[in-house]
Amino acid sequence: MISMDTKTIDEAVELAKFEQKIANEEKIEPSDWMPEAYRKNVIRQMSQHAHSEIIGMQPEGNWITRAPTLRRKAVLLSKVQDEGGHGLYLYSATETLGITRSEMIEALQSRKAKYASIFNYPTLTWADIGAIGWLVDGAAIVNQISLQRTSYGPYARAMVRICKEESFHQRQGYEIMYELAHGTPVQKQMAQDAMNRFWWPSLMMFGPHDADSAHSGQSILWKVKRESNDFLRQKFIDQSVVQIEVLGLELPDPEIVWNEERGHYDSGPIDWDEFKRVINGGGPCNYQRIKHHKKAHQEGEWVREAVRAYRLKQQTKNVA
Ligand code: BYC
């Protein structure tokens, strides 16, 4: 009983210190005490973010062999490698919270963990690569800029580096779109079609409306999330409309209209049934994405085996 009380008092002191750090805008570091619910929540968000980067390599990887020029191929290859790097970087940062990479991979493959819904849509034409770079990486940047100020130190630092690369990704996507939109009528139509298909899934990347967001309230109090889903989505809509005008394409949503009073663009309703279906496994490519991930993971087993054998050899050497 006495030890229980001591534990409770210790925890209350630690909790007060933790809350003070959050209030002072100090970062929470891996060796700091943190509430279990905070640790679990950050693991959830960071690991899902890492999974999104890794699964996100698939729709774009699909076009590496079919890129229209050598320059486009080299750029796309490099971009997809960057996404892989982001994923690995984020897995390592998440491991600092006491979960292993293999536990995270297991959660992804058994569908306990999610990844961004957008990557469950197919890439049908080369213009889709432009639309992904421009809209998907563009939406990711809007979100990730705010996450540079997240309260968990390793996550915030990862975001600074990742945002720099995402900004290059966004420009390469926009450049593809610009060239197509100013090319032949068929190319322009391809650009329009790709934008129309990726527009709504890009808006869904920001998550459900604030009123329906299960984690936002607590995540914002803990400063894990710095802005709400709807705030960031609106920011993305406002910046994209101007970019669409420069491309000379038709707006993908006929309800987009400038609202003088709000100082923002109004837009049409999002199909949340589609969102729910896709995050629950019913999107066009969910099955294919996980199947491919399992296959690639299995094929890479020999590398993990070699690493383990090398480690063992080093340990034996050090003991001898
Ligand atoms: N897709 O309470 P909510 C990239 C889930 S990759 C799937 O609002 P939260 C790129 C949510 O997880 C960049 N699931 O959640 C890579 C929760 O389910 P659980 C990816 C979604 O966490 C390669 C439930 O719905 N960026 O740029 O407060 C090539 C309720 O939602 C989605 C990140 O991962 C969705 N769109 O807010 C190209 C950013 N939305 O966990 C590009 C980091 C919601 O209870 N993540 N859900 O089962 C975040 O900022 C936040 O987690 C979210 C959601 C804004 C996404």
Protein architecture, described:
- By secondary structure, the chain is mainly alpha-helical.
- The protein has one domain (34-319): Ferritin, core subunit, four-helix bundle (Ferritin, Up-down Bundle).
- 69% of the residues lie in helices and 2% in strands.
- The chain has helices at 2-23, 36-55, 57-61, 70-95, 101-109, 126-147, 153-181, 185-204, 216-221, 229-247, 272-282, 286-299, 301-319, and strands at 257-259, 264-266.
- Strands 1-2 form a two-stranded antiparallel ribbon.
- Helix 6 packs parallel to helix 8 (185-204).
- The model has no long low-confidence stretch (mean pLDDT 96).
- Bound molecules: benzoyl coenzyme A (BYC).
Specify the helix fraction band.
55-70%
Percent strand: under 5%
Shape: globular
The radius of gyration over CA amounts to 22 Å
The strand order across the widest sheet is: 1-2
CATH homologous superfamily assignment: Ferritin, core subunit, four-helix bundle
Tell me, rounded to a whole number, the average pLDDT: 96
What is the CATH topology descriptor? Ferritin
Overall tally of domains: 1
Structure annotation, total helices: 13
The oligomerization state is single chain
Elements, N to C (H/E): HHHHHHHHHHEEHHH
CATH class wording: Mainly Alpha
Cα distance, first to last residue?
A: 48 Å
Features:
320 residues; Ferritin; mainly alpha; binds benzoyl coenzyme A; 69% helix; two-stranded antiparallel ribbon; 13 helices
